[in-house]
Amino acid sequence: xxxxxxVTLVAAILVxxxxxxxxxxxxxxxGLSSAIPAGWRIVRKPLSPCTNPVQRLAFRxxxxxxxxxxxxxxxxxxxxxxxxxxxxxxxxxxxxACCPPRDDKGWFLTFRDGNxxxxxxxxLGGKGSRREALAILDSLRVRAR
Length: 145
Description:
Layout: H1 2-15, H2 17-20, E1 23-27, E2 32-36, E3 40-42, E4 54-61, E5 64-70, E6 94-95, E7 105-113, E8 116-123, H3 129-138, E9 141-142
């Protein structure tokens, strides 16, 4: 039985190496945290000059980028769609018009969580970056306002 558990654990690490060594990034001052897959790093400087929405979290890894920004227009939060149980990237990547953090094609997601409105920009890079980018979004924890 112990051998079966060990083999299963090793297989899980080999199948999903990017998420096996993840760590969490906490931003208690803004009430957000997210997992960071292995090989990804935190981006601390603002990636666009926009002040509303404001950058809350940003990560780079394997040529990919995930940026989460929050609207400061709280009166309009109810217009944002409810956060999905699991995020997905639908359709083809497009150039983004509003405060893009990168001059490239990517995805723009909107969602509401904890009575807060968010936009997520996702730009893919190398192999595995789609899965890792979505894992970052799926792991997002939001403190309600």
